[in-house]
């Protein structure tokens, strides 16, 4: 099986109230690859009708050295967390692969990506709107 060196992944899925245009993600990836001296290849993009990251699930099970994405926020989904847990953390296949976050100009390990997605999902689960916090404080006679 041939090894993919750099995998540029573009997410078209609206997640956490964000949907970054494809051309913006590709521009950031191209500039990042030039700056870090990585080979730029055509990006693979998820279908905008899917909410299950099916393409990412399919390609992440193949060997690669570098996964280049715009931001960990754009793939912070329970589906992606499950894919990482099932395919990467329990396998030697891509444990050494680097994840490049082009927006924040970071390079992290897969375990760190797993930790960040877990944290984002946990924070989202317990997050409250301002109106909910205000109502909660009023109900406790603190306001």
Any overview of this molecule?
It is a single chain. The chain is α/β, with parallel strands linked by helices and 143 residues long. It has one domain (4-139): Rossmann fold. Helix content is 41%, strand content 16%. It is built from five helices and five strands. The chain has a five-stranded mixed β-sheet with strand order 2-1-3-4-5. Helix 3 runs antiparallel to helix 4 (110-126). The model has no long low-confidence stretch (mean pLDDT 82).
CATH class division:
Alpha Beta
Tally of separate domains: 1
What are the segments in which pLDDT stays under 50 over at least 5 consecutive residues? none
Overall body shape: globular
* CATH A-level architecture: 3-Layer(aba) Sandwich
Which fold name corresponds to the CATH topology?
Rossmann fold
Number of helices: 5
User: So what's the oligomer here?
Assistant: single chain
Total strands: 5
Strand order of the largest sheet: 2-1-3-4-5
Structural class: alpha/beta
Helix content: 40-55%
Order of helices and strands: EHEHEHEEHH
Strand composition percent? 15-25%
| Main sheet specs | 5 strands, mixed
Output the radius of gyration: 17 Å
């Amino acid at each position: 099986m041939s090894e993919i060196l750099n995998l540029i992944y573009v997410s078209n899925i609206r997640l956490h109230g964000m949907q970054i245009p494809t051309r913006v993600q590709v521009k950031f990836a191209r500039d990042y690859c030039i700056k870090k001296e990585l080979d730029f290849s055509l990006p693979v993009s998820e279908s905008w009708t899917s909410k299950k990251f099916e393409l990412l699930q399919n390609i992440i099970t193949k060997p690669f050295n570098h996964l280049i994405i715009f931001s960990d926020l754009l793939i912070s989904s329970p589906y992606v967390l499950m894919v990482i847990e099932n395919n990467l953390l329990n396998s030697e296949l891509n444990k050494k692969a680097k994840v490049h976050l082009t927006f924040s100009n970071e390079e992290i390990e897969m375990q760190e990506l797993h930790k960040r997605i877990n944290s984002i999902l946990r924070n989202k689960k317990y997050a409250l709107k301002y109106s909910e916090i205000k109502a909660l404080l009023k109900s406790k006679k603190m306001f």
